[in-house]
Specification:
Length: 101
Amino acid sequence: MKKTTLIVAMTLIGQMAFAGDCMITTDRKACAGKEAEVLKPYNGKNPTEETKKLDDVGACEKWAEKSSKIIRKGTLAEKKVSAKFDGKDLGKSFSDKSDCK
């Protein structure tokens, strides 16, 4: 029983050692007249930052790329996302553009 507990504890510690903080910064450009609607979910802030614990740089980049996609078409003209993993700038930014209605 003690060996099993030790193995589980070592596995968890090993997994935690590779995880890091991924911070993405998102800059949104609203369509004309849609600024208040676009920024309302973010308390009027632009750009915004989010942090998540992720396993590695690749996972951080994937999250940044996925976060850059414009979901609410017709309200955003452009969305740009940059990322840092454990405080280091990844040197990449992801963006998406959409037509305003």
